[in-house]
């Protein structure tokens, strides 16, 4: 009985292998996956401008504070903030009334005045 069982298994296996071979050897024209499409790109070198925007603060390397050397009421300013100024350039116009009064008081109270 063992021999009959082995012979039956071998027969079934042969039929399965033969069936698989017949299926796989069929007409190849209609079956199978389609051919993949290929794209072609021509590469050329060109300059690329890269920019980076970063937040930040700046401070001046040299700072100059412009102040009058005498006291009084400033009537006009003859420069724009941030602009260059030259040596001897008038920067302010100060109200002369205080200095005129001081001058006339000094002249009147002068002991050498004749």
Describe the structure.
The protein is mainly alpha-helical. The chain is 31% helix and 6% strand. Strands 1-2 form a two-stranded antiparallel ribbon. The longest helix has 23 residues, at 2-24. The protein is rod-shaped, with a radius of gyration of 53 Å. The termini are far apart.
Counting helices, strands and paired strands, the structural category is: mainly alpha
Order of helices and strands: HEEH
- Give me the number of helical elements: 2
Which residues sit in consecutive blocks of at least 5 with pLDDT less than 50? none
**Largest beta sheet, briefly?**
2 strands, antiparallel
Q: Give the helix level as a range of percent.
A: 25-40%
Q: How many β-strands, per DSSP?
A: 2
| Chain-averaged pLDDT | 81
Content of β-strand: 5-15%
**Major sheet strand order:** 1-2
| Shape field | rod-shaped
Oligomeric category: single chain
| Radius of gyration of CA atoms, rounded to a whole number | 53 Å
What separation lies between the terminal Cα atoms?
164 Å
Topology (SSEs and partners):
Elements: H1 2-24, E1 74-77, E2 92-94, H2 97-108
Antiparallel strand pairs: 1-2
What's a quick, concise take on this entry?
With 114 residues, the protein is mainly alpha-helical. It has helices spanning 2-24, 97-108; strands at residues 74-77, 92-94.
List keywords for this structure.
114 residues; mainly alpha; two-stranded antiparallel ribbon; rod-shaped; single chain
């Amino acid at each position: 009985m063992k021999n009959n069982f082995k012979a039956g298994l071998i027969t079934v296996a042969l039929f399965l292998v033969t069936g698989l071979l017949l299926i796989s050897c069929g007409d190849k024209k209609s079956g199978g996956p389609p051919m993949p499409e290929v794209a072609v790109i021509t590469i050329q070198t060109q300059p690329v401008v890269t920019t980076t925007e970063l937040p930040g603060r700046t401070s001046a390397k040299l700072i100059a504070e412009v102040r009058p050397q005498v006291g009084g009421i400033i009537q006009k300013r003859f420069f724009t903030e941030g602009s260059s100024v030259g040596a001897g350039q008038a920067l302010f116009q100060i109200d002369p009334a205080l200095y005129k009064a001081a001058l006339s008081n000094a002249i009147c109270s002068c002991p050498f005045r004749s």
